């Protein structure tokens, strides 16, 4: 069974997920379908044509660029107008300097101005996550450890935000509750033991990978003995974590060895201590802040 962290991290943004986010965002902005922009539609002639650029107003890692074309297409369809021409000058994952042009566009003024805030909201959020993730990736450079996201995402934006993590160089952990079993303290209490929880999951969902959160060396030994090959070490000081990692690694090889056990540090991680934690020998670090605390990036659409 392959754990989500072992999968390739090059999947593109799901176009259906993006289309859904754009549609919901436009409904919020424009009111009942097809919606209206009372300012733009009152002050600008129906046949007005405009040209402009989408640009970065601060340095960032770009993510969500497909929102430009998708938002323009949906707005044009609502209004019964031609979709503006969009020429992309950057790609998701690019590091951009302040002032860098992301896209050039031209077409009906009503479409461009009505689409403006929605496409900027989506790209600013995604680029903020990608930029924050890249800081962690850079901080871990050369250590061998990789940064993971979590399920602490904005409701309705999980696909977008986890894509942005990939564009920042990070790794997606499970997408939801359906694709990987994660045994935590409450599950252990309910099942009676770590081994009991693992046994029940294997009986019910034999095809699903299992990960176990541990707080002590005894829990780690029990989990490995029950067949777990992915442990999340929760809120353990670096010295204790290093000892646990060394113990697990010592048991991986040789006759009767466990084979590879993936180890993840979780809880209490900051950019200030990330290299100390990486030095313990863990494979991954999960950081909820990648998605729940990333500030947006300042992007703008300027006509000219």
Automatic annotation (TrEMBL):
Top-level taxon: Bacteria
Q: Which organism is it from?
A: Demequina lignilytica
Q: In which pathway does it act?
A: Cofactor biosynthesis; NAD(+) biosynthesis; nicotinate D-ribonucleotide from quinolinate: step 1/1
Give the family from UniProt. Answer: Belongs to the NadC/ModD family.
Question: Which gene does this sequence derive from?
Answer: nadC
Recorded catalytic reaction(s): these are:
nicotinate beta-D-ribonucleotide + CO2 + diphosphate = quinolinate + 5-phospho-alpha-D-ribose 1-diphosphate + 2 H(+)
Q: Which GO terms describe its cellular component?
A: cytoplasm
Q: What class of enzyme is it?
A: transferase
| Role noted for this protein | Involved in the catabolism of quinolinic acid (QA).
Give the UniProt keywords, A-Z. Glycosyltransferase, Pyridine nucleotide biosynthesis, Transferase
Q: Which InterPro entries does the annotation name?
A: Aldolase_TIM (IPR013785), NadC (IPR004393), NadC/ModD (IPR027277), Nicotinate_pribotase-like_C (IPR036068), Quinolinate_PRibosylTase_N_sf (IPR037128), Quinolinate_PRibosylTrfase_C (IPR002638), Quinolinate_PRibosylTrfase_N (IPR022412)
Name the UniProt record assigns to this protein:
Nicotinate-nucleotide pyrophosphorylase [carboxylating]
Which CDD domains does the annotation name?
QPRTase
